[in-house]
Amino acid sequence: MESKERERVMLLEEEVKSLSEELIQCQADKEFVWSLWKRLQVANPDLTQAVSLVVEREKQKAEAKDRKVLEILQAKDLKIQELEKDVAAQRQELGGAGQRRWQVEEECRLMKKELAGLSHRLADKSRQLQEVEECKRVSEERGRSLQERCSVLQHELLTNQQNQNQQQENHTARIQELVRLRAGHQEELVRLRAEHQEELVKLRAELLEVQGRSAALSSQLSTVEQQSSEREQQLQKLRRELVEIQALYRQSVEHAGEQAELIQQLEGLNLDTQHVLRSQEQAHCTHTASYQKLYTELSASYQALLRREDELRQRDTGLTAQLHQRDQQISQLQAELEQLQQQLRDKTSQVQYVYIYNYVHNQSEWSSFTYITWP
């Protein structure tokens, strides 16, 4: 906003400067006409010298105006070339930003595929973990069953020791076999626990790495989108400036045409100067009309400045509205990002729920299997 205010002040200062120069030129014309009028008040005025002075004066004015118009046109051409170069550079930067954005989106797509693969792997590992835990549970149940059976057998041995001396050796061998089976199951359970812990640690590390890469890519994507929006705003600003400069160029061309018409009018005025100088009253009327015309032009310039100020204020209001709209779009994008994060958390909860459900379901299946195959 401050830069726009400074630009507006600079434009107004330039317009005031041009009006001051025109006023000085009008005062110089007034003094010249007054001196010429005094020169013609003598008894025998030299009309040829007066006409030559007027022609010389008009030539000087025309040359000065031509130089001024040429300088303005050269400055405008240089500024237009600089703006065209800036626009080309901005377009190249926007193209590069679009390419970088496409690369980031491609990386995000690959990361999503990797994340899906890791999710499948996690589901497989979870299923394996459930199987291991089911095996552990079955082994523990078999161990408890063996302990109970051992206690029953010991009780039977104690109660029937006198009547079953011949079967004692068989029962002792059976008990030793059951103890060996129990020790083997415990060793297998310890090994499966260790493997499960290692797989679980690896999966957690891979999941943390994937989450970190996903967060980094999300931050890079937001940075690229912000840079793209800033480049787009700069490009729109440059386009508006280019349109304004083209309008000023057209105004300068129109002004040059008006100056050419004015020169033609002055040449016609030089032809009629002798007749104008013979009538002092008509010269006085012409002088008064010139002042009136000058006043009218100054009033028109002042009104144009007022209209220009109103247009700048309206443009400022429009830019403020656009900025507010951009803020709303940013808020909407933030809300969508939060929604996506919530969906990711929901997906994680669903995966955990499926993991628990498979765990319980596998436990029930192993219980049925143990009940059927037990001797």
Describe the secondary-structure layout.
Layout: H1 2-39, H2 47-159, H3 168-271, H4 273-278, H5 280-373
Helix pairs in contact: 1-5, 2-3, 2-5
What is the C-alpha radius of gyration, as a whole number of Å?
49 Å
Task: Note the gap between the termini.
Answer: 90 Å
Name the average pLDDT.
Answer: 74
User: What is the count of distinct domains?
Assistant: 1
Helix content: over 70%
Report the strand count: 0
Number of helices: 5
SSE order? HHHHH
Low-confidence stretches: 366-375
Strand content: under 5%
Largest sheet: none
Shape: rod-shaped
How is this structure best described in words?
The chain is mainly alpha-helical. The chain has one domain (2-373). The protein is 95% helix and 0% strand. The chain contains 5 helices and no strands. The chain has helices at residues 2-39, 47-159, 168-271, 273-278, 280-373. Helix 1 packs antiparallel against helix 5, helix 2 (47-159) runs antiparallel to helix 3 and helix 2 packs parallel to helix 5 (280-373). The longest helix has 113 residues, at 47-159. Mean pLDDT is 74; it is low at 366-375.
List keywords for this structure.
375 residues, mainly alpha, 5 helices, 0% strand, Centlein-like, coiled coil
